[in-house]
Amino acid sequence: MRVITANVNGIRAAQRRGGLEWLAQQEPDVVAMQEVRASAKQFATALDGSALAEFELAHAESAAAGREGVAILTKHALASSSSVIDGFDEIGRWVEADVVVDGLSVTIASVYVHTGEAGTDKQTAKYAFLDALESRMAQLVDRPALVMGDFNVAHTANDLKNWKGNRGKAGFLEDEQAYLTRLTQNGWVDVVRANHGDVPGPYSWWSWRGKAFDNDSGWRIDYQFASPALAAVAREPWTGRAAAYDQRWSDHAAVVVDYDLAALETTGGVT
Question: Are strands 255-259 and 145-150 parallel, antiparallel or unpaired?
C-alpha cells in the first residue's frame, strides 16, 4: 500500500502547477491532503481529468471559505469517515477514514495543525487542537493506523536547518515538541525519522521567498505517524523534493511511504 501525505497549498493552485499529475504518477493507494482550501464543488472541479478523480474521497471543509481543509483520497473502498475531533468541527483540520485494502481495514487520518504564534491566542488554540489530536491518537494506536499531515512542528534540531535562529518561535517551541515526543513514547512511529536515523532532514517545507529552497534551508514538519502494527511493515520512506525551484508545485514536499500489508497480515497485526 503506497501512502502519500502532501500539503497541497491550495488544491486549485496545485492542479495548475502539475501537482495532481505528480501525485497520480506515484501510483498511490491513499493520498492525504492538507490546506485544500476548496469547497466540495471546487475540489471536484480541480480533480476533474486527473486519475485521482476516480478515487473515493473523504473531505473536511473549513467553515472559512478558502482556508485550511483536509482530505483523504483512496482507490480502495472507503468504509467510513469522520471530520470531527473532540468538538473541533468545521475547521477543516482533521478527517479520518477506514480504508479497506484487500479485505484489511486501515484507519487513515489527515491532519493540519495551524502555524500558531508564540505568546498569543493563536498559540493557545494550537495547543488546544494538539490536545484533542493527542487524545484521539491514543484511541487509535492499538489498531493498524496512520495519522499524517502538516503538524507545523519541527520535533528536534535535526528537523530544522536554522534551528538556532528559531528558538522561541512557533513551530520550534519545547511545549510543541513535547506533543510529538509523547506520541513516540506512546507507540507511534515517525517512519521517516526511523528510516533516516539521527541526521538533519529530510526537510519537507521551504519558504517561497529568497534562496531557502536552493540552499535547502527548510523545516521537516510533514509526518507519517504509524501505529506499531503498520510501522513494522513500513518500507523505504522518501520525500518528494522538487529537482529545482521552478518545478515546485507546493511550498511543501510530499512524504511517500510503502506499507507491506501482506506482511502485516502474516504477523497477525490486523484484526
Answer: unpaired
Q: What is the pLDDT along the chain (271 residues), one digit of tens a residue?
A: 999 999 999 999 999 999 999 999 999 999 999 999 999 999 999 999 999 999 999 999 887 777 899 999 999 999 888 887 877 877 899 999 999 998 999 999 999 999 999 999 999 999 999 999 999 999 999 999 999 999 999 999 999 999 999 999 999 999 999 999 999 999 999 999 999 999 999 999 999 999 999 999 999 999 999 999 999 999 999 999 999 999 999 999 999 999 999 998 665 554 4
Q: What is the pTM of this model?
A: 0.95
Pairing mode, strands 145-150 and 104-112: parallel
CA–CA gap between residue 29 and residue 101 (Å, rounded): 9
Q: What angle do CA 91, 95, 100 make, to 5 degrees?
A: 170
Nine-digit cell at 36?
A: 485544500
